[in-house]
Amino acid sequence: MIKELLLVVSIIDGDTIKVLDHDQTQLRVRLASIDAPERKQPFGRKASMMLADFVGNRKVDLNCPTKDRYNRWICTVYLDDIDINKLMVLGGGAWVYRRYYSGTSYLVAEEEAKREKRGLWGTSEYGIMPPWEWRQRNK
Predict the structure, then answer these.
(1) Could you confirm whether 69 is annotated as catalytic?
(2) Catalytic residue among 30, 58, 115, 118
(3) Are 29 and 75 a contacting pair, CB within 8 Å?
(4) Exposure string over 12-29, b if 16+ CB within 10 A, otherwise e
(5) pTM across the whole model
(6) DSSP class per residue in 34-88
(7) Does residue 30 have an active-site annotation?
(8) 26-31 and 59-67 strand pairing
(9) Using one digit for the tens of pLDDT, what is the confidence trace for 74-120?
(10) Choices 2.40.50.90, 2.40.160.10, 3.40.430.10, 2.60.40.10: CATH for 2-137
(11) What is d(CA 42, CA 98) in angstroms, rounded to the nearest whole number?
């Protein structure tokens, strides 16, 4: 499913947004192939603010091939042809979610963010824990 120019009405966290569709229905959207820190995790609030800076209250295009078990659309989000999912990784706001990503460009972006110590990569080693590990430890 491809949806064009939908208004972002809410930032849930660093990898989840709500958009308003053409019927004025709110859709919950999970950014595909990335995983941002959880809200209570170190850098979680900053990742949410980063995503808000990129797309908050803006119209975006979505490429959404599927839904997840929580009934969220899994999408690549575009703002003026800019891949926001990749931009979150490049800015150090999210990890590449290797379990669900098979390409290379996001991995290259993550390596650049690490090398340049952007975002979460500039925090202490204590704070750098992938969200999937953090969720397991904090069940």
Answers:
(1) no
(2) 30
(3) yes
(4) ebbbbbbbeeeeeeebbb
(5) 0.91
(6) EEPPPTTSTTHHHHHHHHHHHHTT-EEEEEEEEE-TTS-EEEEEEETTEEHHHHH
(7) yes
(8) unpaired
(9) 999 999 999 999 999 999 999 999 999 999 999 999 999 999 999 99
(10) 2.40.50.90
(11) 21
- Report d(CA 113, CA 34) in Å as an integer: 14
Angle 97-25-37 (CA atoms, 0-180°, nearest 5)? 25
Residue 38 catalytic?
yes
- Whether residue 18 contacts residue 77, with contact meaning beta carbons closer than 8 Å, is answered with no
Catalytic-labelled residue, pool 4, 28, 72, 135: 72
Amino acid at 6: L
Considering 4, 38, 69, 118, which one is annotated as catalytic?
Answer: 38
